[in-house]
Each structure stands twice: as C-alpha cells, then as structure tokens.
Amino acid sequence: MTFPPHVRLVEVGPRDGLQNEPEAIDTGTKLALIDRLGAAGLTHIEAASFVSPKWVPQMADHREVMHGLRRHEGVTYSALTPNLKGLEAALECGVDEVAVFAAASEAFSRKNINCSVAESLERFAPVLQRAREANVRVRGYVSCVLGCPYEGEIAPARVAEVARALHQMGCYEVSLGDTIGTGTPLKAKRMLEAVTRDVPMERLGAHFHDTYGQALANLYAVLEEGIAVIDSSVAGLGGCPYAKGASGNVASEDVVYLLDGLGIAHGVDLEKLAAAGSWITRAIGRPNRSKAGVALSSR
Ligand code: HMG
Ligand code: MG
Hints:
Layout lengths: L7 E4 L1 H5 L9 H13 L4 E6 L12 H7 L7 E5 L3 H9 L4 E7 L2 H8 L3 H17 L3 E7 L12 H14 L3 E6 L6 H11 L8 E5 L6 H11 L3 E4 L19 H11 L7 H15 L6 H7 L2
Parallel strand pairs: 1-8, 2-3, 3-4, 4-5, 5-6, 6-7, 7-8
This protein binds 3-hydroxy-3-methylglutaryl-coenzyme A (HMG) and magnesium ion.
C-alpha cells in the first residue's frame, strides 16, 4: 500500500456539477463560483462545456463564462470539446485546456454524443491535432468504466482499450468515469489494474460519481494503487444528463478531508472550499451533498 504524496484535484463542479441543473443558472453565479474555487486553491477548474446548446442548455453560455473569468494565477481553466466546432469556439475564448469524452459503452456513447465509440475516436483525432497546433493540452474521459445505465456490466478490458486509444491519440491524461456511481472498491481496483497494463498510472485520473454512496471508498481503493489525480465537484453537485439517475460527483470537500486524514498534500484550503460549497448550494437552492462541507459550515 503506497499512497501518492500529492494529489491533484480537478474541480468539475462548474461543468459536471451544473450541466444537469434544470433551472437556468445565470452566468454571473457560475463566474462567482469559479472565482471562489480558484481562491480556495484549486489549480484545475473545468469551467464550461462547448457542446450543443440543444443537447445541454445549461452550458449554452460557454463563451460568456470563458470570457468572464477572473483568472487566478496558476489555475488551469478547461472546457469540454466533443468536436472541432467546440474546440474552435473554445480556442477563440482563450481556453487553457480542453477535454474530449468517449465511453466504454456503445449504448452510452450513442445517447451522449450521438455516435459509436469508434466514430467518436475518429472525431477526436482532428480535435487533438488542432489543439496540438494551438499548444493546448487535451484531457480524455472514458465514461461508464464501472457500469453503464443501458448495458450494465462493462468489461475492464473494454475500458482499457478506450483509455489506450485516447492516450495513444495524445491525451496527456485519461480520466476514468464511474458515470453512474455503481462501482465498488474491489471492482475499481480490478478495472484500474486492467487499464494500467496499457496506460501508465501517472497518466490516469479517477472521476467517480456518488450515486450509490461508494465514491469515497472507491477513491481510497484507487489511491492505494497509486492514483494521484482526482476529479470532484464542490458540494457534490451534478449528474450527467444522458445517464438517468446519475447523481453528483464525489464532493470536493469530502475528498480534501480524506486526503488530509491520509497525510496526502493537495494545496486546497478546506474552509474556503466549504464556504464556496455552502454559498453555491444556497444560490441555486440545492442541498449540499458534501458531509464534510455541511459539518464545517455548521460549526
Ligand atoms: P449531433 O447532433 O450528432 O451533431 O450532436 P451534429 O454535428 O449533427 O450537429 C447538430 C447541431 O449541433 C448543429 O446545429 C450543430 O451546429 C450543433 P443545428 O444545425 O441543428 O442548429 N453543434 C454544436 N453546437 C455547439 N457546440 C458544438 C456543436 N457541435 C455541433 N460543439 C454533439 C453531436 C456531440 C454535438 C452532441 O451530441 C452534444 O453536444 N452532446 C453533448 C453531450 C454532453 O455534453 N454530455 C454531458 C457531458 S459528458 C459527461 O458528463 C461525462 C463525464 O463527466 C465523465 C463521466 O462522468 O463519465 C465527462
Ligand atoms: Mg461526470
């Protein structure tokens, strides 16, 4: 058992956290959230998503969000870009980094991005090429790594295959998404074991949703294996619009509390992060799903 000495947190609250909110959230609120997250010491914030506004209306103000950022020094502001159209728009807005997203499930791929897994990989190749020309790094996501809402069980070998393809294509990091939060710790370890045969551990991140309350346990399991990049969402906001029943990502506050207890460095100010979590949940009228956040805010 060797924990990494340092973990990099990728805060996905402004994107994954808010993309599924049914009521329109004004751009100012999103920008204030992103500002608070930067002030709390998060160094990587997924700020927007350059997807079709017909598919995900909540992310339609991607340009305004990117242009309105009050940038904190040393913070990477990234955005999702499923195709060249999205990438070009994101580049025009001065994005620092982008992410493409594939799935280990055919059915989910079709529901989420309207094409097969193979077609999505073909579509990403020119995105990576164009991003390289623009000197912008590309992160890759694999969804449904521990289960699919349509296909059920997903073979670890299939996850490895898609992760390898994204890595070989030039994604500097591949984030493994338990989109519907059905994973459990041993399953997470086995999946990671399969993926690390093809992609080095230091190129992988864990992106776990907490639908079944397993996300922290799953993170502990993969930290033991050496995962050193964790995606999380302040106050546990979120869910994927194309994964019915999926709840939010693991809460950033809870991850930070866990890392503190394990003596793993992360660079985040937990008090400020918890304050950001209680502020955004009040602002959008949502329950705060971070246990640590609620405990800290009610002291
Ligand atoms: P499509 O309909 O197959 O694409 O959608 P198309 O190329 O035929 O275009 C259709 C329309 O969309 C056209 O407009 C395009 O201009 C427009 P129209 O002529 O009808 O007016 N369009 C765009 N508009 C803005 N930005 C773009 C763009 N591309 C096309 N980039 C597409 C394909 C991928 C666009 C669509 O399926 C889509 O936007 N899907 C978004 C799905 C999504 O955002 N899902 C949530 C994020 S993924 C996630 O949450 C999982 C993750 O967190 C990891 C995990 O948890 O597992 C990352
Ligand atoms: Mg997600």
